[in-house]
Amino acid sequence: MNQNVGSTDRRVRTALGAVLGGLSFATLGGAAPLPALAAPVFGVASLLMLGTAATGTCALYSLFGVDTCPASAGGSR
């Protein structure tokens, strides 16, 4: 799979993944007044965001033909 997540998109995904992970832990610890179901949902979403940021590929982007990764001058990524 070719990379289809650009650098700005990676930063946003990393930040969002960190926030969602923190919310997941806060919900588990009782610090956030959210339903118990929110913790695993936020946890899975956090892992997905951090995983796509780390690999630089997003399956949904591939499915819909979205590419936020700019092509370099050499033609390869």
Any overview of this molecule?
Pfam families: YgaP-like_TM. It comes from Halorubrum rutilum. InterPro entries: YgaP-like_TM (IPR021309). Residues 1-71 form the Inner membrane protein YgaP-like transmembrane domain. This is DUF2892 domain-containing protein. The protein is mainly alpha-helical. It has one domain. The protein is 61% helix and 0% strand. The protein has 3 helices and no strands. Helix 1 packs antiparallel against helix 2. The mean pLDDT is 90.
Summarize the structure.
The protein is an all-alpha fold and 77 residues long. It is 61% helix and 0% strand.
Detail the topology: elements first, then pairings.
Layout lengths: L6 H23 L8 H18 L3 H6 L13
Biggest β-sheet description: none
**Low-confidence runs of at least 5 consecutive residues:** none
Number of strands: 0
Number of domains: 1
Distance between the termini: 11 Å
Question: Characteristics of this structure?
Answer:
mainly alpha; elongated; 3 helices; about 80 residues; single chain
